[in-house]
Design brief:
By secondary structure, the chain is α+β, with helices and mostly antiparallel strands. It is built from 16 helices and 6 strands.
Length: about 375
């Protein structure tokens, strides 16, 4: 049976696979369209298996929100190159995966892959295999996180970072206003840019707070020049009076004027500074009980909380509001005449923690030339 260009075109429209692959499938199936489709599906499975070991750390992170259902998901689908993220077929597949997740609420990626893909009788895996054949790269659905309720999304850098932030809004009709939408997007952008770990201090696990406090104390003791002056002076006196510094370092320090002593670390040896830190650590118990030191540690601890907790972070759009993120949300809530509370967020960084593919274009071209 003669294979026409129209036959090839029709198969391509049905499968999305390239013209040459469609022609091969039709020839192998003697023009039978259904058999050709099965042929391509088998080819897709084989292609996926062949490419499965190739590194896929590019792709896209997509935050997808169904406003009517008040449900959202952030999903990461990886590919070998970032060019694929600009491919319409790839993006359509990722959106379909997001819709599938919202419709079926799978427990994990494995369950998702065995679920029928959005609006079809084929599984997500089978649909993915078709795409692998069509595009020619290894692709994997890596992870997803769901969110219920009112939410806003932000996608940065073509899918390099995806954010979804959830809100409790007392008067839910206010969530449809332009002011609320702008506020939600600004908070989502804050999350993308500043990468907070927790929502607020109350969200930080107790053992993590204890660890942070301990590290703050040890860090301060190991940087004695940052200690309060009364404590630092006591440590230096012990180093000098107890001859724990060399005569040269003692002489150098004693000959510094008051201004120079404020920057004494520029004049003494590294060994002398290390000795000063050792003295500080040896007096840890009494220094920790010192009220001046307690204040210093609390200040540094609070600064860390402001860095890792979203609501305590300084709002980056200070052209809109000067203060914390919580202050900004409260300010918008006041303008809208309703209570608004941020109740959680999802932030995904594409390829985070994955082994990256090292590009060697000369080698790649040589492989193509040599078959």
């Amino acid at each position: 049976m003669a294979i026409t260009a129209q036959d090839v075109k029709a198969l391509r429209e049905k499968t999305g696979v390239g013209m040459m692959e469609c022609k091969k499938a039709l020839v192998a199936s003697e023009g039978d369209m259904e058999k050709a489709i099965d042929f391509l599906r088998e080819r897709g499975l084989a292609a996926a298996a062949k490419k499965a070991t190739r590194i896929a750390a590019e792709g896209v992170v997509l935050p997808y929100y169904d406003k009517a259902a008040k449900k959202g998901v952030v999903v990461e689908v990886n590919s070998e190159t970032d060019f694929v993220a600009k491919n319409d077929k790839f993006m359509a597949f990722v959106e379909g995966v997001a819709r599938t997740i919202l419709a079926t609420n799978p427990a994990d990626v494995e369950t998702l892959c065995n679920t029928n893909y959005d609006g079809t009788d084929r599984t997500v895996t089978e649909t993915l295999n078709d795409l692998v054949l069509a595009i020619g790269e290894n692709m994997k659905i890596r992870r997803f996180e769901l969110m219920d309720g009112i939410a806003q999304t932000y996608i940065h850098g073509g899918g390099s970072v995806g954010v979804m932030v959830g809100f409790d809004v007392e008067d839910e009709s206010k969530a449809d206003t332009a002011e609320f939408t702008a506020m939600g997007k600004n908070v989502a952008m804050q999350i993308a840019a500043m990468s907070p770990t927790y929502l607020d201090e109350a969200s930080v696990p107790e053992d993590e707070l204890t660890k942070m406090h301990s590290i703050t104390v040890d860090s301060a003791l190991n940087k004695p020049d940052t200690l309060p002056m009364p404590i630092l002076t006591s440590l230096i006196n012990e180093a000098i009076d107890g001859k724990k510094w060399t005569d040269d370092d003692i002489s150098v320090y004693q000959n510094l004027d008051n201004k120079q002593r404020k920057n004494f670390t520029n004049f003494i040896s590294k060994e002398a500074y290390a000795t000063l830190a050792e003295i500080a650590v040896s007096h840890k118990a009494e220094i920790v009980d010192n009220k001046i030191f307690t204040g210093l540690v609390q200040g540094r601890f609070t600064k860390q909380i402001k860095e890792i907790c979203l609501l305590e972070q300084e709002f980056v759009r200070n052209d809109l509001f000067k203060g914390s993120v919580k202050g900004y949300v409260d300010d918008v809530a006041k303008q809208l005449g309703t209570a608004i509370k941020v109740n959680g967020f999802i932030r995904m960084l594409k390829g985070d923690g994955l082994e990256k593919r090292e590009e060697n274009f000369a080698e790649e071209i040589a492989k193509q030339i040599n078959g």
